[in-house]
Amino acid sequence: ETGVTQTPRHLVMGMTNKKSLKCEQHLGHNAMYWYKQSAKKPLELMFVYNFKEQTENNSVPSRFSPECPNSSHLFLHLHTLQPEDSALYLCASSSKGTGGETQYFGPGTRLLVL
Amino acid sequence: GENVEQHPSTLSVQEGDSAVIKCTYSDSASNYFPWYKQELGKRPQLIIDIRSNVGEKKDQRIAVTLNKTAKHFSLHITETQPEDSAVYFCAASDANAGKSTFGDGTTLTVKP
Known about the structure:
The complex is a heterodimer. Chain A has strands at 4-7, 10-13, 18-25, 31-37, 44-50, 53-57, 64-70, 73-79, 87-94, 104-105, 109-113. By secondary structure, chain A is an all-beta fold. The termini of chain B are far apart. Chains A and B meet through strand 5 and strand 10 of A and strand 4, strand 5, strand 9 and strand 10 of B.
């Protein structure tokens, strides 16, 4: 599937590293989302962007910094992460962020923080 | 905000049997209820959805029912097959809220 792509697919980083996750959608959607998926909380919404504007920050620590330069691209900048941040990070998009439409997920980035 | 509870957390059935997963929601303004299936190592994908103006929707072996008064909706899978084994997530969303709230998922195992 090529609708929503994410890179890298796997990432190992130390607590002092800085890295970025990238998401790209080819569906012409206007809303993009970051989710964290872990055994503790299966699908935890982090951020919502609607027409490049952040409309939701679900009390996410500042060591996670999102960036949405246009409606097709979404980044998650990571710095000074903790081991408990190890999880699968899923990006999703929808036609518009009104909540009443299907979300299309990317394959995720499996992150391990050492 | 919206709160979605999903039960059971795990479900094991014999091939050919039916499976039912139930979700309750708290916000009466929620009007869109999708179900996603996530196979092991893969991304969540929509399998069926229902809007608040409809009580039931079917698509081959899967169906979803919605009771707005009681604020609950259910996924029904009939004639289960091993390839139905996956984690299933329900969600509830309000068209004005700009986001969906997901349940914690149900791990369905279909034994051959």
